[in-house]
Design brief:
- This protein has about 350 residues and is of the alpha+beta class.
- The chain has two domains: about 5-120, Rieske [2Fe-2S] iron-sulphur domain (Rieske Iron-sulfur Protein, 3-layer Sandwich); about 125-345, Naphthalene 1,2-dioxygenase Alpha Subunit, Chain A, domain 1 (Alpha-Beta Complex).
- It contains five helices and 19 strands.
- The strands form four sheets. Strands 12, 13, 14, 15, 16, 17, 18 and 19 form an eight-stranded antiparallel beta sheet that branches. A four-stranded antiparallel beta sheet has the order 2-3-4-9, with no helix packed on it.
- Strand 7 and strand 8 (about 80) form a beta hairpin.
- It is elongated.
- The two termini are about 15 Å apart.
- The protein binds FE2/S2 (inorganic) cluster and fe (ii) ion.
Amino acid sequence: MFLRNCWYVAAYSSEIGDMPLARTFLNEPVLLYRTVGGKPVALEDRCCHRNLPLSMGRREGDCIRCGYHGLKFDAAGQCVEIPGQKEIPREAQVRSYPVVERWNFVWIWMGDVSKCDESQLPHWDCANDTSVTTTLGNNEKPLPMKCNWELNNDNLLDLVHVVYIHAATLGGAGLDTTPVTTERFDRSIKMTRWSEHADPPPLLARLAGFNSPDADRWQATVCEIPSHCTIDVGFCTHGTIGRDGDWDQGSRLRALITATPETDTTSFMFYCQCRNFAVGDAEVSRNFIGHVRDIFMEDITVMEGQQRINSAMPNAPRIEIRADTPVVAMHRLVEKFAAAEKLSS
Ligand code: FES
Ligand SMILES: [Fe+2]
């Protein structure tokens, strides 16, 4: 199941250039490129003549020419030239998708164009905050995941998993015994955990030069429809900030992470990290990018394992535990949006 009337990350900005980039979203083959003026374009990756992928053709100015019989399409998907004939039938066109470029990502709207709305982009403005250092994920290439996109929401709304999956880098005592709070909003779910006298995450403490023997630690995730997560994690010397204080006074990392569905059982992970420690330190950034990739590969190994079982045993009974409250709340929200899309289609 996919939500269609929402934005998805199609690519890091740097991935889209003159050459056609072919990618599949929500089971639909899409072609991405930039016009001569630099505007990103997304077209159905299919020639309307005999279905050759247009990405196998070539760029001509702002247009793309099919590599089979030479039909030429403009950036709006309209056929503008058919070799050997003057008249161009009106139906000689392919679908074009709305795109918008924000925070070093190119976003695509896969649904009803009449409902396309930029105000529904996630609240990721910390990526523009000049007081933090932002690193883009995995050298600006998406991490492919052989799992359904929703498993990534589940993973990020239940961060106690750091104790088990990322013990050496993000784990620590005192976390998994702290209960979470769940807040429900129109388009998002928020999970918060505030742990006192907890170990800080070893990797982040090292990079931040933090060595206080007694720490408070937080984890908070906002998951916005459909899959756009802001993970806010950090730590401070015990008692110096407090749950309702200014978290920027501690060592704080906000990770902006999203999963874009490719097919029902595969997806792409895109992300960036905004940190308020070691600001501007290129060596820490380099280190950090590698570590974060390794950490996310640990998540992906788990999610792909879940997908294998989900596919093999779709009706196997499962239980819920107390820490699942935000995960279940997000499932309900996605179902509500899916039902609304069905009604309006
Ligand atoms: S398939 Fe594209 S021109 Fe024939
Ligand atoms: Fe994780």
